[in-house]
Design a protein that fits this description.
single chain, Rossmann fold, two-stranded parallel ribbon, 8 helices, 2 strands, globular
Length: about 160
Amino acid sequence: MGGIDVCDEDALKKLFREYADENTTVWNLAAPLSVETALDPAVAEAVTVGGMDKVLNAMSTVGARRICFTDSIGSFGSEAPRDGATARWLTENPLQDPGSDYGLQKRGCRELMAKYDWQLDDARASTATRVTAQRHARQHSDSTEKCASTQRRHIDTLTQLI
């Protein structure tokens, strides 16, 4: 099952047809490191945003409706508060300039997921796609550091459930 290129839409659809169904939860972690993104933004865009679009499209072919997406601190730009910044700030300022191609690509993924949101089954999934920690931050007005710890616990819990 390994060796699937997130940029190969036909291979993704085949993978989903063979191994997935409406009960499948997808973990999309495909993205180059921010340093690699700076070296070749076009390739990084194809992997991060193009890959997300292809994954969401492949999910829709089998009715898979749950996805977990890891956002990045790179999504925050110079406009973000330096002290006590919450993940809520990111969702409340979706058009802020993250200041890097990497951050723009992560924002592009959030925008794609918003377009597919009507197909997502689980409200937690659509929130989780924008960083599990953001849900916690909105509920508790916590800092991103505390939310990152919460996100790790959520990932551990979700991994046990899958």
